[in-house]
């Protein structure tokens, strides 16, 4: 089968492309943003990529066009597909029909922690010898890639609540039909799609309706919004997890800086050291351990596997130690994720200075939905550098002003680099937070710190 993917260089669609290629299909694609690492990763798989969305890429009529959710009516390639009557479907629909069907799907959903939890779960299954397939919105360091076809029966998928396609406004995850479902947490997000939290709860409830009666739902007992959603109906067995006592699954740190943890379930308990930091990551780990249990992996096996888990690219990834400064790349772009990352760093490195550089890129952030929460989330950092993009809400500057001299706002990347370089000194931790490229500020600052004075 010849599959042409529109939007092929996105993380999700690039993963779909890799899976299709692994299944033996001929794969081509189009994208407006063709650049490494995704472009080189796809080319190494023998996938031809057309830059831009010219209808010419569809001259050799494919058997199926898979259309990414970033594309809409008016796009030349989309119009060509419709006008020529070419068969088309969304990425999630293709994934369900050609990869997930007949497998034990283990889906990880929630506002935060999906990528890390999915990566942990895939690694636990791999370490246990189960050779799972996976499609994750990031690159687990233990695997070095975001997608793998794997061996039956297990497949781990990061279950995103963003909409499916211009012709299908349901959340992506309703297509996956999981047998094991992890629900990490639920907050209001994606303000460009959902008018309020109730709309998100409704989408999650549609996901719940797809889990079979003999399946399993693993949920965060501490999350009130998840409880609200579950109260609408749960037709499968369910198990709760929490860092507080009383849940079916429990975990806690066994040292002051969070370098060791203990996880327990009933009479099973195990302890290990690990490389990650923060209570939020311990929640992610506990969710992954509980989900892996549905595949027959014991608590001891799962905890031991996590002692060998190397993290995820761009999830508080330490990218350099230069001039005595520790530099990190982090994907956090929601106030809760930002706050938890800062808290985790402060616990791991008590008494050491923490610098945060933030690029607000999400539509929700730009609309001003989280202005007040953002200020509270950043408060524990020793210094905050914020890049102010065009199009942010009118209240953005006034909200950040509440941080006083603790914050510096920049409109140019070069000015941010100069400002940070003048403040940083040996022993500091410098975390860059963005769900985009951030103007290569992290790389440029690293080079500037390394340059001879």
Unreliable stretches (pLDDT < 50, length at least 5) are: none
Question: Briefly, what CATH class of the largest domain?
Answer: Alpha Beta
Structural class: alpha/beta
Stated plainly, the CATH topology of the largest domain is called UDP-N-acetylmuramoyl-L-alanine:D-glutamate ligase
Q: How would you state the average pLDDT, rounded?
A: 93
Largest sheet: 10 strands, mixed
Strand content: 15-25%
- Give the domain tally: 3
Query: What is the 3D shape?
Result: globular
Number of helices: 15
In angstroms, what separates the terminal alpha carbons? 58 Å
Major sheet: arrangement of strands: 8-7-9-6-12-13-14-15-16-17
Radius of gyration: 22 Å
CATH superfamily of the largest domain: Mur-like, catalytic domain
- Second CATH tier, the architecture of the largest domain: 3-Layer(aba) Sandwich
Number of E strands:
23
Helical fraction equals 25-40%
Domain Mur ligase C-terminal: 314-436
GO molecular function, one term: UDP-N-acetylmuramate-L-alanyl-gamma-D-glutamyl-meso-2,6-diaminoheptanedioate ligase activity
Keywords: ATP-binding, Cell cycle, Cell division, Cell shape, Cell wall biogenesis/degradation, Ligase, Magnesium, Nucleotide-binding, Peptidoglycan synthesis
Family: Belongs to the MurCDEF family. Mpl subfamily.
């Amino acid at each position: 089968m010849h599959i042409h993917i529109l939007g092929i260089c996105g993380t999700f669609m690039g993963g779909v492309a890799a899976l299709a290629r692994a299944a033996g299909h001929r794969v081509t694609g189009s994208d407006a943003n063709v650049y490494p690492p995704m472009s080189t990763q796809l080319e190494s798989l023998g996938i031809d990529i057309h830059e831009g969305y010219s209808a010419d890429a569809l001259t050799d009529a494919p058997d199926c066009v898979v259309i990414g959710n970033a594309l809409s009516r008016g796009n030349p390639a989309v119009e060509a597909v419709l006008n020529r009557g070419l068969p088309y479907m969304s990425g999630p629909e293709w994934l369900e029909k050609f990869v997930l069907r007949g497998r034990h799907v283990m889906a990880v959903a929630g506002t935060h922690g999906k990528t890390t939890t999915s990566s942990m779960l895939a690694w636990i299954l791999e370490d246990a010898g189960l050779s799972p397939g996976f499609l994750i919105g990031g690159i687990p360091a233990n695997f070095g890639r975001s997608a793998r076809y794997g061996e039956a029966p297990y497949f781990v998928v990061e279950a995103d609540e963003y909409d499916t396609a211009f012709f299908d406004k349901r959340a992506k995850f309703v297509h996956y039909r999981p047998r094991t479902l992890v629900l990490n947490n639920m907050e209001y997000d994606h303000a460009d799609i959902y008018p309020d939290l109730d709309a998100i709860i409704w989408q999650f409830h549609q996901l719940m309706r797809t889990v079979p009666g003999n399946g399993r739902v693993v949920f965060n007992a501490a999350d009130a919004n998840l409880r609200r959603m579950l109260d609408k109906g749960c037709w499968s067995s369910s198990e709760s997890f929490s860092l507080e006592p009383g849940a079916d699954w429990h975990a806690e740190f066994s040292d002051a800086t969070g370098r060791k943890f203990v996880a327990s379930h009933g009479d099973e308990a195990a302890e290990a050291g690990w490389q990650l930091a923060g209570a939020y990551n311990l929640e992610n780990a506990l969710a992954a351990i509980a989900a892996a249990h549905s595949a027959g992996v014991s608590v001891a096996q799962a905890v031991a596997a996590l002692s060998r888990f190397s993290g995820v690219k761009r999830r508080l990834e330490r990218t350099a130690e230069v001039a005595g400064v520790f530099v990190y790349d982090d994907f956090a772009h929601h106030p809760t994720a930002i706050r938890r990352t800062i808290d985790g760093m402060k616990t791991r490195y008590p008494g050491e200075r923490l610098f945060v550089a933030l690029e607000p890129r999400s539509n929700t952030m730009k609309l001003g939905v989280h202005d007040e929460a953002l200020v509270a989330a950043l408060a524990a950092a020793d210094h905050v550098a914020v890049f102010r993009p065009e199009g942010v809400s009118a209240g953005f500057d006034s909200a950040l002003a509440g941080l006083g001299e603790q914050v510096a706002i920049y409109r140019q990347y070069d000015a941010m680099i100069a400002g940070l370089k003048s403040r940083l000194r040996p022993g500091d931790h410098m975390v860059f937070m963005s769900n985009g490229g951030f103007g290569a500020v992290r790389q440029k600052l690293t080079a500037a710190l390394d340059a001879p004075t």
